[in-house]
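Write out the 3D structure for:
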Amino acid sequence: MEKLTNPLFNYDYTMPDGVTPAMKVTGKNQQDITFTGKSGVFGDAVFAKGKYLVIPVFFDELHCVNLIMRFYENFGQAGEVHSKIAYGLLPHFLHYVTIDLRILDMTVSGQPRVPGSLTFMYTNTPTRPGELDALVITIPKSATEYAFYMGEPYLADAPPVQPLYDGVYVDRLGQWALKEWKGKTASESEMTANYRKWLAEADAPGEGYRNSAGFFRLEVRGVVHHLIDPDGQPFFSVGPDCMYPSSGGPIGGLEKMIEELPPKDSLFAACWSHGKKNGGPVNVDFLKANLIKAFGETWYSDWIKLTAHRMKAWGFNTVANWADERFRKESGLPYVIEPWVAETERNIFRDLPDVFSPEYEANNIEHAKTLEPYKNDRNLIGYFMRNEPSFAFGDYNLTLYMLKSDFDSYSKREFIKDMQEKYGGIEAFNAAWGTDFTDFNAVKTPWPWDVKLTPEAEKDSEAFNRKLVSKYIEVPAKAFRAVAPHHLNLGLRWAFIANEFFYGGSEFIDVFSLNSYTESLDPARIAEISQKAGGKPVIIGEFHTGALDAGLPTNGICSSASQEERGAHYSYYVENGATIPALIGAHYFQYNDQPLLGRGDGENCNVGMIDVCGKPHYEMINKIIETNARVMDIRMGKIKPTDRRPVIVPNEGYCS
């Protein structure tokens, strides 16, 4: 076992196994644990020869932990770069945090989850194992005192076996068995009685705008952008994402920690599924199982009736992204869809396709046919082209990654054509880029990993980055428009704007969209985004807040002190957002709480409006009802928004 030794660290404690030596870190503030080396050698560990980095950790808190690892080249010197990996972990049992070192080059899509692990995120700059000279392990700040135990990191040729919690971690309703909280459902009979009471109070869904004359459109009145509904009235879009009668996730390897799993036959067979890739992990859905327990054969239609009633009673006017298809059709509410962007067999970087290839155009023309059933639906506001492209998770030079790729892409050929037009001969290109190619055909060969760009090369690649993004948007946007000409193209829902070239292609969309997990929206920033997007209005595809007082161990990206403060956050965010002239809506992520053991990518946040037993988080909902009733008067300038800011606390366990 090759260990990352550091003589400054004392391992005076042991892990719960009684064997593994550990250091103990306590406090509330962020703390960094630094290991240093030289040319990829840390004590006994030679990173270039290792396959996996393993870090034993244990913590016994009532929240998850987001462990952050930064891998450095030229630590503390000029030219310092680092890869950042964030790893979410369930509390109360020993973890062997395992990092596949192949992901440090930032080109692959991540690594599979193991029992007990949650979210996984990697960003920043690619690094090379053989050139590492520091590893910094960060324990983020917390709202409460923590005790965190960490064993000595080591390199391994294979992932170790993960220990599990020895006891009941999840009760038969899908709730956290290790914690009590206000509003926790005590039994199956209580859950069933609640559901039947709520359903008895529900009105039948309506038709919405289906008998109206027009479609949703955009209009500017004075300096204010407005979404206009099919009846010609201004419409500020508010509604929750992920409106499904389900909230499942993988349980592989964790079965013994669950009090009782749903049956696998009869109606309950719908609670079991497999992931999409290679057969995928086994997923279990407790929220759906609870609906079936409460309503039996009619569970699906009863959920639609109850949920449509709640949306109207709570004042929402939009079924936001990722909704159940039958609910979209039957709820009578305006809605959006997400047809996604077709890809190519080989991408040039992460999920960025070979956008100049005939394959990309053909795939998107074919894929656009999925819009056919929606093209005359007047309840449809529009469509988001996709969500949070992973090629945008960092300030990446897309052109350089394309040039480093090992296949002769059409996008490479387009770049070479542009360079030939600009420079004429290869000699002028070499002089500007600091290269020594014999001809332009040689530019197609994979470029070396450590190539350095000249200032002129930086300018050229920045221009081509924008061209790549513009083409990425243009091709599907035209294909979608040809099939559904009456509906709005709502953009790509960027996670954040890491580079100016993300505004490329804005001329092909109607609305510029992004997700913004903050306490509130900055009016100047929204105005700037609109201006850089060619004057397009802006819509927020996702925002949320979570808390730790309602039975889940992760709060959220933006986190509040309680359910009441979650309501205050919603009010402050939406009401003040409604005063921003370029903003036409803000969609909340999401309707259901996430599953305790994590959804497919590991998220297990209390960010929903209802819990796994269907019970609303009433303290939050009461504020939502107040705000949604006021939002159009605020938008029209008749009343002022709230100035009551929420109490924000550190996020616990979410990878960011």
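The chain has a mean pLDDT of 95.
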